[in-house]
């Protein structure tokens, strides 16, 4: 769809002329519904644990390409009206019409369209995009729009609380109404005076904000979101300079100790258990708002001042590193608190003249003014992948223009839970467009999630999305006016737009695919600056990356939000009942993209179906393993892989990213400290972590039935009699492995920034590096002597067992002169002689997986990320190119399901390597446990009893679409 503004070729002109819209997705003269084959289905939902039927509606109508899972979730979650009555919706057409017609009517009434024909185009295009699963609005839109209920369209709310009892009690009330409506809220409680300060009225000691958290927590636990059987979603933030910060940090960790004690005493302390309500602070996510001043004090090892809330004076000084350690230890114990980086957040704030950003919504993706809200919508990225495995940036941008227009229209008719929230939202019109299926998209393109190519692709797509959104926002400002708060914040808003543009200019593209998208993003940001200076902007914010839990299933996405793929094998429900275990359909497409022929693809897919991972898959080259890394399983992504992907997307988002950095159970406190510190350095706005099995209040099976990693297990396993054992103390000392008299060596001449040198390395018989000699100056010079001594020291260390990987990680990225261009095609740029030498040694002696973890690749390996690489390199071999061309490009049509019906089933319709799922598995998470024999550390769904899986900062149920707190 190409949308132009009436009266101007490059943007909006005079106000009141409206948008002139052209069709792109829908067909002139044909309603989108008439292009689709529809079918009737029965939706019956059962709790697998109890056998109880929890929902039943027969004869519902959906497009034939919608999966059983998608139709089940939409029917149970979004259809309105009492089940079993004529008032109940029974077709997707009714649901989409209820929403789309409301949006179209509001657009007409508020002057968004130039003519009636444009309103019709808007309605048809929006309908087409929704029924073809190209995007979805957030859940409150489907819950409320077009019904008799209040027209609440926002999923995210930020409240405010001041240092008074009236304000605190009002906080409880406002949160309750928001939870009742099915949404979540966050707030910063730092204005409440600490327990170390006096009350003005009586002179007594104040209770402190942590004590008031108890009342809010109890309220949230009582008022279930939207009347559902799940906990409310809430976020509580406290500034790092608050005098009660240590009490806040340790609050949930101490409750976790209580949970363990009660569990060991026989109480039911699982999430949703009968006795879990006896502990406190379990209904909120906690985050510490840290400043650059504090983080620099942590780096420098200096002290940090805690300030009184009433006077602002420093009343206590603490060791910054000690406080940072306490934060990380608490997160290690119970996954809370997360961190929010205050100075970074407010540096990208478009409305600083109105007020600072102090808090976020429960999942930390929406960050804006106090007493504000944000409505969300997310695009399905995989829908924009073309047959030639490139991303269709132009079509994506047209969809974004259309969707952001619809989102802005919704504010015209929306209702809000409080008058203050309504006023702020109408005045600032914050939107949150985002996407899902990034992990599946990257895999289908043959790009590793934790790779430079993957991050470049994600960065350019995110930049194009936000740039196009603000471009349309500036055009709308020329038609219906800028947001009410724009005038006082115009300079700041334009400054942030320039920051986004500058960040876009620094993106380093690696392939034709991402360079094409980057070119479109560059054009979009240029238009943002030009049109915004003329018209202003309609919206204070445009984009976030939300969890996309339930709506991700509605769009049949393999992955949610910015997340990588959960696992390589999926659990799939079938029409009429039954289930299948299938390999992700993006995997064959990725293998073909990487140059594998049909026979190889079939063998690798069959291996994945059997084992659930790619390790030792027949014919799969080790350097391609990274493309198939997942969130869980045998090749799960390293924590910093998650952080680096977030850092790639963050500069192109108005808000932040809902995502949890997963760490293994063996992770240390130091590793959590490093994640938090690196997240700050890389410019993230917020970070949350989760260490496997750190919480008791959820199932924690090893996959074999035992509950591992807890004190009670140790106690249960202890024998009745204590046997005294004598343990011999063994002292280990390193031994030197000397090189043979005659050994293989190689000499490399090099130039770094004009300085010449020679590198000679010798290896053991097994190929392991054993000695290094550097020649960098004239014999007898000081430099030559230092290099000789350095070479001897390193060589002895290697022979005593110091891993080469340790040297490489320590000496690469050292920066000093001479530096610059080299004459080595594998290391084109070097920050110093040492940086070059150790990169060269890594390439010569380290295996691919170790180098990849350090970001060191050869020229040939980097070529894999080039769009033409997998084709051009094959063509040079002269023989395999024809085979690849004969293997057709992956199609965008959905996988054919095996339907269990009365009619016979054609066996040829079964997807490759598909087979009946184990009886014990009812979701992908449970299937992964069966295949791997290890636990997926997530809670069970309250509705259907199946194991949920991570989605952003919460969990989502694959069986029924329920979430653990995020709407």
TrEMBL record:
Boundaries of every TSCPD domain copy: 740-844
Enzyme nomenclature, EC number: 1.17.4.1
GO molecular function: cobalamin binding; cobalt ion binding; nucleotide binding; ribonucleoside-diphosphate reductase activity, thioredoxin disulfide as acceptor
UniProt domain Ribonucleotide reductase large subunit C-terminal: residue ranges: 154-690
GO BP annotations listed: DNA biosynthetic process
Domain Ribonucleotide reductase class II vitamin B12-dependent N-terminal: 42-133
Cofactor section: adenosylcob(III)alamin
Catalytically driven reaction(s): a 2'-deoxyribonucleoside 5'-diphosphate + [thioredoxin]-disulfide + H2O = a ribonucleoside 5'-diphosphate + [thioredoxin]-dithiol
Top-level class of the enzyme under EC nomenclature: oxidoreductase
InterPro entries to which the protein is assigned, alphabetical: RdRp_reductase_class-2 (IPR050862), RNR_2_N (IPR013678), RNR_lg_C (IPR000788), RNR_NrdJ/NrdZ (IPR013344), TSCPD_dom (IPR024434)
Record key words, sorted: Cobalamin, Cobalt, Disulfide bond, DNA synthesis, Nucleotide-binding, Oxidoreductase
Family: Belongs to the ribonucleoside diphosphate reductase class-2 family.
PANTHER family recorded: RIBONUCLEOSIDE-DIPHOSPHATE REDUCTASE, VITAMIN B12-DEPENDENT RIBONUCLEOTIDE REDUCTASE
Name of the protein in its database record: Vitamin B12-dependent ribonucleotide reductase
Organism the protein comes from: Nocardioides lianchengensis
